Amino acid sequence: MTKKESQSEETPLTPWQEEHARYLQKKNEEEKGQTDDQVSVADEKKEKSDSYDDEDIQLNRASERVSFMDKLPNLHSYHNKQLIRRVSFILGLLTIPLIICGYFISPYSRLGKIEVSGNQVVTTQEIIAASKLQLDENFWQQYQDRSQAAKKIETKYPRIKSVAIKMTGINQLKLSVTEYEEIAQLSKNGTYSPILASGKVLAETRKEASKQEVILEKFTNNEQILATITQYKKLSSELQSAISQISYEATKANDQLLHLYMNDGNTVIVNIDNLASQMKYYPQIAKDLTEKGTIDMEVGIFYAPYESSTTSTSDTTNTSDTTSSSEDSVPSDSSQENN
What we know:
GO biological process, one term: FtsZ-dependent cytokinesis
Protein name: Cell division protein DivIB
Structural class: alpha/beta
Largest sheet: 8 strands, mixed
Number of helices: 11
Distance between the termini: 201 Å
Pfam families: FtsQ_DivIB_C, POTRA_1
CATH class of the largest domain: Alpha Beta
Shape: elongated
Strand content: 15-25%
Mean pLDDT: 80
Low-confidence stretches: 3-8, 308-339
Subcellular location: Cell membrane; Membrane
CATH topology of the largest domain: Rossmann fold
Region (Disordered): 25-54, 307-339
Order of helices and strands: HHEHHHEEEEEHHEEEHHEEHH
């Protein structure tokens, strides 16, 4: 034993010291109890934390399992779609050539029908024959050559102005025809040949003149006819209907001279080049006339009535010879001989 211990055992404690000793002992016990409580609380928190971590790990694993299961049907659907696309592409590659081969073998690849519209004079059979289009022959080849077919028709029939060939069905063609208007007729050797609006004189002839078109006579070449028709088309429909006959009466001094015989009985002398510009005055002049006669529009405008003792032809010739005179009458053949 130490010296202090021996002294403490030997020396009795006072009441105050005993009380202080009990206080210190109690305090030590309380502090020890608190330390134990803190340790137990920390242990509980650690246990709870460990349990939470375990729960989180389990939840995460469960969520991973659920999300994978959710993705599995979508992945399966995606693969199915990809498979369908690939199969469709392969089938398409195989089907298209089969369809094309089937089409060219079928009757739909051959020309099945030809329709003609717009023709007035040239018959449908004549147009189809001139086109060289053939039924039951390769449709697309003939369709590609449609411009050549149209040209063949226009070349064979000058009456036809244009031909438009269009596809109207899977194997059908339509020929839309436009014909030139028949605007006049050329009198030659007792027959009459149609003259088109293009100035073309057709080779076909007829014995009787048509009452619908003006008659051209004494013309010797196509240039004269074309120039006259060009001017004639510039006239109003009323003036065109008023002219019955146009005669080419060229002289050494004037190779453009025309005699126009009107339906109202008058005769007009005019040049080819100023036919349209001069004839626009005719309705007013004819309205002011008191008797039938010759109206000379070659140079200026002069009028001379017919004389009863001469024919209209002789009067017209005399008027042409005296256009530079200021007299208002045309002398007869007998008076010219006397002079």
